[in-house]
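Incident log, structure service

09:12 report received: a user says their structure output differs between two submissions of the same chain.
09:20 pulled the input from the user's history:
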Amino acid sequence: MKLISNNGKLWITFYYQSKRHRKSLNLDDTKANRKLAENVIIPEIQYKLNLGTFFEKEKSDIPTVEEYAKISFELHSYHRKASTLSDYESSLKLHINPYFADKRIDRIKPSDVALWQNMLLDKLSPRRVRTIRAVFNMFFQDALRDGIIDKNPLTMVKVPKIEKVEVKPFTLDEMMKIIQSGESDIQSFVALGFLTGMRSGEMIGLRWEDIDFKKGVINVLNKPGFKTKTRKWRPVPLHKDLRRILWSYRNGSENCFDTTNWRRILNRIMEKAKLNDQGIAWHTFRHTFASHLVMNGAPLATIAELLGHSSITTTMIYSHLSADHVKDAVDKLKF
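09:34 re-ran on a clean worker, output below:
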């Protein structure tokens, strides 16, 4: 056991069970304190190490998963969107806490994580499980940086494989069927997605004051929920049908919409619209918006501006052509 000085404070370094430890004595580096450390404190620590009781108090202070999750969320609150944090909290409540809430974060083994992941895969898609894993991984990585754990057990468990699914934009008939399947708030939200191509976070963060019904423009705040000094806006034209739907839905709250559990709502809408066979995510609405603009001859640069893309290359990913549109294009060829 070695006594060292660091920034005017006394520390000790020692090896225990082949692992190096470094601990502050919370004493100023003075002649009297060095004598106290060498004659009293170090012998007492050595005695407790021999008995195997030295780390008991320290380990009793290690937080459970539920306790450390609160710390981790606070650490990332400045850098994450409000909608992202809300989704993370939902993952914690529904899928992590039921298995690990009261378990100390340093006692979770790779086998625990593997069994937990298998149970999730029995009821959830690999893509959703990967999202939940990312939340759990955030806790472990923060705990690793804090020195609470020595290794992240999640890194030793294979990530579920995702099969690439082709996004299939909706036809105009399908769009109308989905819009007409929900109550007024859901109807307004879905219509907003189809007719503006806005991101889900942008729609959730939309305020009534951002909609200029007179001029027919929606002022969209890019990346709402981030605590940034600058607020970047882009104007999106207000479609005449969307203007009518939103005008009839207006309420007295500041935000247009007040909900975060859109996955369950989407499933309910698709069930009512009898389109269950088609996979859906909010990106499907965005793809649908972009694809119909392309098929109606809108320039890619214009679509990129409407979607808030900085590059046309990104916009091209959202551009899908229907089979009829492709056939019509080929039929127009002349020799």
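09:41 both user submissions now match this output. Likely a transient worker issue. Closing.
09:42 reviewer note: Residues 31-51 form the longest helix (21 residues). The chain has a mean pLDDT of 82.
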